[in-house]
Write a structure and sequence with these properties.
The structure is a single chain. By secondary structure, the chain is an all-alpha fold. The chain is rod-shaped. The termini are far apart. Helix 6 packs parallel to helix 9. It is built from nine helices and no strands.
């Protein structure tokens, strides 16, 4: 631990904003892992239970379960069911309702994903800034003392390498997390589209049966 602190201090002042970005990245990644988990997006058992009540025509129970389950999928189901009960039974009307709900829910899914991407872009730039500062110190030492004081030279080169390494060590996993969450978000959106299609088909079939 003492060695890590010494290395951190050798990196100079740029290490502190880099450390702050690293902590933020970890916090945002943990938060998104939780928020984009299956339990928070598509609770399969609850959706199956809701589907059963819809087939039985017990819309009140289906809506209650959907509203009591905190997820984007059940929010979509609850909104479409409420519109159906209020008389919007046409397929196009239900599609419009589903699209409106999706537009409201998808930004919630995005959450800190863009912030994670920003950290992945900024961290290496800060690392390179530290490199430039370190090299400036090296050339200043060369202009004043020449090659007579290798310790000053090694200190500047060390700072340059440490900040670059620290910036990249933050950026690489953060960038990987960013693209993982982006692909996860695309998958969730496609799941929502499929869910909306299935739900609307189920409701229109019920409506047609009632009409007969």
């Amino acid at each position: 631990m003492e060695y890590i602190i010494q290395v951190f201090q050798k990196g100079g002042p740029i290490m502190y904003p880099l450390l702050f970005l690293g902590i933020l990245a970890i916090a945002f990644i943990i938060e998104r892992l939780y928020s984009l988990s299956s339990r928070k997006t598509f609770p399969v058992r609850k959706l199956e239970e809701i589907s059963f009540y819809i087939q039985e025509g017990r819309f009140a129970e289906a809506i209650t379960i959907a509203k009591n389950t905190n997820s984007v999928a059940t929010a979509l189901v609850a909104g479409v069911l409420e519109a159906y009960i209020k008389g919007r039974k046409d397929e196009e009307q239900l599609k419009t309702v589903a699209e409106e709900i999706a537009r409201a829910e998808i930004p919630k899914l995005e959450g800190y994903i863009n912030a994670i991407g920003a950290i992945a872009a900024i961290a290496p730039l800060l690392g390179f800034l530290g490199t430039v500062v370190g090299m400036i110190q090296v050339f200043e030492a060369l202009s004043v003392e020449g090659l007579s004081n290798p310790q000053v030279l090694s200190s500047g080169i060390s700072q340059a390498l440490i900040t670059t390494a620290f910036g990249l060590s933050i950026a690489i996993p953060t960038l990987a997390a960013y693209w993982y969450f982006r692909s996860k978000l695309s998958f969730i959106v496609s799941q929502m589209e499929n869910l909306a299609i299935e739900l609307i088909y189920q409701l229109t079939e019920l409506s047609n049966k009632e009409g007969k």
